[in-house]
Amino acid sequence: MWTASLALFVVTLGFGVVVPLMPAIAQGAGDGASQFSALFVAYSAARIACQVPGGVWVDRAGALSVLRIALALYALSLGGLLVPGGLVWFTAVRTVEGAATGLAFPATLALAAAAGPPEAIGRRIGLVTGVGTSGFLVGPVMGGALAGSGPELPLSVALAAAVAMLVCLLVVTAPAGAERAARTVRGEIAALARMSARPDFIGLVLPLGFNKLVFSGMQALLPLWGAEVLGLGVRGVTGLFALSGVVFAVVQPLAGALADRLDPRAVIVACAIPMMIAIGFLGEAPGGASFAALFGGYILLSSVIFAATLKHAGRAYGEGGGAYGGVFGVVQTLTDFMTLVGPVLCLVLYQTRPGQLFPVVAAIGVPFQIGFVLLTRRRRPA
What we know:
By secondary structure, the protein is mainly α. The protein folds into two domains: 1-172, MFS general substrate transporter like domains (Growth Hormone, Chain: A); 197-382, Up-down Bundle (Growth Hormone, Chain: A), CATH 1.20.1250. The chain contains 15 helices and no strands. α4 (87-114) packs antiparallel against α5 (121-132) and α12 (288-318) runs antiparallel to α13.
């Protein structure tokens, strides 16, 4: 489990390091916003496209084998960013980075799910996601601190971490029960398609989809709202991003353990209402401190929902055939589409209805939560 946690941390660390360096990398690729956008779109599209095939591959070849390949590809992508090139080259490199991330997430979650007794899946998933995704917080700080003379030094540090992690993965062995053959490829894909069409599964992904919609929208919105409405400088806005990373990383293991002790469905329902209230009142915060308090509360509750949803998915849909990779790949893919909607929605509302932005976003969550309650009411998770 710690191997999975550290591997995911290295992947998210590399992504976090690259983010503040993207303007410099895009400038090397050419001029204009289109080049900058292409580097982000290539990453997101490749990540989304690879998660379901990656999950199937995890169930066929074993999570550890796929994770080794994901780390090799990730190291290759970081090395590629060190090579001078144009737009086509850097876009291709970012595509490799996105594909590697799309393979790494279902592989690490599958390792966590299969690494111990079924009744503790939530705690293991929470620990892996809490430790693993903290790289999203550490990476930008490290990238910004080391980028004084150019992007080469922070990229080299991230590359060294990826290579070191790959070496560790090559010498470790899979935990007992973590490497189990699933169905044939055709049977696996058919089973995942049937699962994705089930009303209870559709209901399961709705709260997580709303969470990703809001969080991705906040990432685009916070620099504008913080500077123009709250009067925060760069440090203040950076502090809000750091707050979200710290809260998520700390809450994940605790939320996973809570989902092991209680019905995950009940946990999700209990957190949904106060979370939407916190979102709805963000626009009423008169200053940075009050906004941070509400924002931290929203992150805390959404983090609990995240862990409970993954535990629910693993227990209800993955345990029967050991096909955790495919299940997590489908869950991540379906909900990641909301990350394409969130930034556009929040920025449009900011430009057209700034006074009603947060209440509207909170109201959008109501049908997501109602759909979850109605569609999952007949299937209680183990």
